[in-house]
Amino acid sequence: MLIEKKFIIQNEQGLHARPAAIFVQIANKYESDIVVKKGRQEVNGKSIMGLLTLAAEKGAKLYIKVNGPDAKEAIRELEKIILGDVS
């Protein structure tokens, strides 16, 4: 199953080190492939270095593409991080 969703970063500090680390930790629990895109840059959502290179500040638009058997569960859990439920 392929799911693509657009998010706007809500966290005051953006997707800085702590939420990026949590995002990667969650992403790695799932079998699905996870790609995060900001502008023209696409990175592996299971890579902390990849996420940090996006420099996603508050208000930034991110597109997350999840492809695999557990895509629904993965996108649901990752959405919490993107929307600022973790600081």
Biggest sheet, spatial arrangement of strands: 1-4-2-3
What general form does the structure show? Answer: globular
Number of strands: 4
Strand content: 25-35%
Distance between the termini: 30 Å
Helix/strand/pairing class, anyone?
alpha+beta
Order of helices and strands: EHEEHEH
Which stretches of 5+ consecutive residues score pLDDT under 50?
Answer: none
Query: Which assembly state applies to the chains in this document?
Result: single chain
Mean pLDDT: 92
What is Rg?
11 Å
Helix content: 25-40%
Largest sheet: 4 strands, antiparallel
Tally of contiguous helical segments: 3
Report on the structure:
With 87 residues, the chain is an alpha+beta fold. The protein has three helices and four strands; from the N terminus they run E-H-E-E-H-E-H. The protein has a four-stranded antiparallel β-sheet. The longest helix has 12 residues, at 71-82. It is globular and about 30 Å long. The chain starts with a strand and ends in a 5-residue tail after the last helix. The relative contact order is 0.33.
